[in-house]
Design a protein that fits this description.
Elements lengths: L4 E2 L3 H4 L19 E5 L1 E3 L2 E8 L3 E8 L6 E2 L2 H6 L4 E8 L6 E14 L3 E11 L6 H5 L5 E4 L7 E5 L4 E5 L12 E4 L1 E3 L2 E9 L5 E8 L7 E4 L13 E8 L2 E13 L6 E9 L15 E3 L1 H4 L2 E6 L4 E6 L14 E6 L5 E7 L4 H4 L7 E5 L2 E2 L5 H7 L7 E8 L2 E8 L5
Parallel strand pairs: 1-18, 5-10, 6-9, 16-21, 17-20
Antiparallel strand pairs: 2-12, 3-4, 4-5, 4-8, 6-10, 7-8, 8-9, 11-12, 11-22, 13-23, 14-15, 15-16, 15-19, 17-21, 18-19, 19-20, 22-23, 24-25, 25-26, 26-27, 26-28, 28-29
């Protein structure tokens, strides 16, 4: 339960936001390649980008977003950005009203690397997503990967570098990679492949390639008869939507075909979508592949030829590890050094230890929480089954010592 998907609004605005206008990024004439460093925090790729020429902001690099989005309106207000049009739409829960504004001609710079002289973006009236709670660092928006689509894009999760290559000069070492044909629809990348929830139940699936999702795999369980959660899946909170937390199931699927690089026993989140709403934005997809799976590869994206290329990294054969405590934790406070229990899975080790929603974690294994980050705590809670973890929590002004004995939950 430590790896969540945050359901963004890009797909909701897809039918309203004008398609033309994103001019994209450029590199200096004569340069064949630039390497852009990124932070990889809790399975999110985070780029530092100068907004309108000088203000450094943090953006999640997102292949699953149709448009670039600024989630902090106070920044664009401070810079006196002009809003051309207001959008009023309903959130993904069909209840929550959402307001966003179109801003044109925004400049983005990654100093000494690349620049976009004039981008059209969306600015949210409010920060509906609270990305910081899940990433544990400042996040100011979402940068759609299509802004780099004129280049060959290489994502190296091990080095934490995105490389942009001039396609006229780039030479693919095909023997090292497996090519996968993909479908492009409204600036997003879709893979058609085969998935087995159980060993004897192969299903054809269309999956969004989504670097904005901090999980391995998400399936919409009511889009195909064979995509139902396995019998040992657990009922869980699988993420954050506009109307609150999204309920679903978490389990493991037997396997997913990725060309010649199949993946086995993948931790998978199952969500039932509301089939009564207009689902055109889904493009008939059955789910998505997120960073926790993609990060097992060196990934190359070629938008113009509708191809992705995969090369296994050192983590290619590692086990997919799920939280073994039953705790869902978010980061708050100054420098995101306060950790609040957002959810406790019933019947889990954390529930048995008496930890409750709203408890503030003040120490983990005798280390003050202020010396840890959200990722540190989540990794501790994924340690081997049988490991005893001592937590000190604060509840109603009282300090309570709790001991959790980790075990497999799925």
């Amino acid at each position: 339960m430590s790896r969540k998907i945050i359901c963004v609004i890009g797909y909701i605005l897809a039918l309203l936001f004008p398609a033309a206008g994103q001019s994209g990024f450029f590199i200096a004439k004569g340069r064949k390649q630039v390497d852009i460093p990124f932070e990889y925090v809790n399975n999110f790729i985070i780029l530092t980008v100068n907004f309108n020429g000088f203000l450094p902001l943090k953006f999640i690099f997102d292949t699953g977003a149709e448009h670039t989005i600024l989630t902090k309106r106070q920044i664009s207000d401070l810079l006196r950005v002009r809003y051309e049009r207001e959008f009023r739409v309903t959130g993904s829960d069909l209840k929550t009203p959402l307001i966003a504004y179109l801003a044109r001609g925004i400049r983005f710079d990654i100093p000494d690397k690349t620049f976009a002289p004039s981008e059209d973006i969306l600015v949210l009236q409010e920060d509906y997503f609270r990305f910081e709670e899940y990433a544990g660092v400042d996040v100011h928006g979402i940068l759609s990967s299509v802004a780099f689509s004129k280049f060959i894009i290489q994502i190296n999760y091990e080095r934490k570098v995105i490389s942009l290559y001039d396609r006229e000069w780039y030479k693919m070492r095909e023997g090292d990679y497996a090519p996968l044909s993909v479908e492009l629809f409204r600036n997003k990348i879709y893979l058609n492949t085969s998935l087995r929830v159980l060993p004897d139940s192969a299903a054809p699936v269309k999956l969004l390639i989504d670097t904005g999702a901090g999980l391995p795999l998400l399936l919409f369980s009511n889009t195909h008869p064979l995509l139902h959660p396995p019998a040992n899946a657990i009922s869980s909170n699988i993420g954050m939507g506009l109307g609150g937390y999204i309920e679903g199931y978490t389990g493991r699927v037997h396997g997913l075909e990725l060309g010649k690089f199949d993946q086995k026993s993948i931790i998978t989140y199952f969500q039932q979508i509301d089939s009564s709403q207009n689902l055109d934005y889904l493009n008939k997809r059955n789910g998505l592949i997120g960073n926790t799976l993609l990060s097992r590869f060196l990934v190359i994206l070629d938008y113009q030829k509708a191809l992705i290329w995969l090369k296994p990294s050192r983590e290619y054969k590692d086990e997919f590890v799920y939280d073994r405590s039953g705790l869902s934790i978010i980061a708050t406070g100054r420098k995101f050094s306060e950790f609040i229990v957002q959810n406790v899975l019933p019947g889990s080790p954390a529930a048995e230890a008496g930890i409750q929603r709203g408890d503030r974690i003040v120490a983990v294994r005798r280390t003050p929480a202020g010396f840890l980050n959200l990722g540190d705590i989540q990794r501790i809670l994924q340690k081997k089954p049988g490991k005893q973890i001592r937590l000190v929590v604060k509840r109603d002004g009282q300090r309570l010592v709790k001991k959790i004995v980790l075990r497999e939950l799925i």
